[in-house]
Design a protein that fits this description.
The protein is mainly α and 241 residues long. The chain has one domain. Helices cover 87% and strands 0% of the residues. The protein has nine helices and no strands.
């Protein structure tokens, strides 16, 4: 096959994939999830932008909480919010919204990547880690079905978050909206549990020193970073063996 023929073949394949992706985006459950997640992300970003213009200080705190949650997880995001003096009525809804957006966007992208409809190179390593974590735990969850998936997402253990939970639900054959509903329900219950615990802990620590709450956040971030590094190192060693 000549180079021109190879280029034409690749272009034809790309057009075919784009056509399949467009159809899937509007007709499949995963496509609707992605559109909903993008819509929520747009509204949330617009709201933060308006607050940044009207109330810059409050908006900066919310942006910091959102960024912390996306990078380090829900516990870190909640701790950041409480360390900045925010109340339950602000911290919990923001955390719920951010987790919902993450699930509604990244889960469909994983499924599209799995089906080779859309491959994003920058997310390939992340999806591979999530896939391996899901495969290692799917048999345990499968034994208990929907209840097992709910508990798996709710438990505050390493690599038991909503993204891994969604992928497990996908692997064990749950319908899209059942999968999303169970995972988000477990996530919301976990958020409320973390919020109550961290708020009470924050109040007790704050009674000793005004700097203690920030120290708690730094300690939590340190534990998360070290835990992530240890998890990656252990799995790299397992793969080498």
């Amino acid at each position: 096959m000549s180079e021109e023929q190879q280029k034409e073949s690749v272009e034809h394949l790309d057009l075919h994939q784009k056509s399949d992706l467009k159809k899937t985006l509007f007709t499949s459950g995963e496509g609707r999830c992605l559109l909903m997640g993008v819509g929520l992300a747009f509204v949330f970003t617009l709201w933060l932008g308006v607050k940044l213009l009207l109330v810059p200080e409050d908006s900066q705190v919310l942006i910091g909480m959102t960024a912390t949650q996306i990078i380090f997880g829900r516990a870190a995001g909640l701790a950041f919010g409480y360390s900045m003096g925010l109340e339950h009525t602000t911290v919990i809804p923001i955390c719920v919204l951010v987790e919902s957006i993450i699930v509604l966007i990244f889960y469909p992208l994983f499924v599209f990547s799995w089906r080779h409809l859309l491959v994003i190179k920058r997310l390939r390593n992340l999806f591979e880690r999530i896939r391996k974590a899901a495969e290692n735990r799917k048999d345990i969850v499968r034994s208990y079905g929907i209840a097992g998936l709910f508990v798996f997402v709710w438990l505050p253990f390493w690599m038991t978050g909503p993204l891994v939970g969604c992928v497990i639900g996908f692997m064990i054959g749950l319908r899209t909206w059942v999968n999303i509903g169970v995972v988000l329900s477990g996530t919301y219950v976990a958020i409320i549990g973390w919020a109550v615990f961290l708020r009470q802990f924050h109040e007790r620590v704050a009674s000793y020193s005004s700097y203690a709450t920030m120290g708690l956040l730094v300690l939590l971030l340190f534990i998360i970073i070290v835990g992530n590094l240890l998890y990656r190192t252990s799995h790299e060693n397992i793969n080498k063996d």
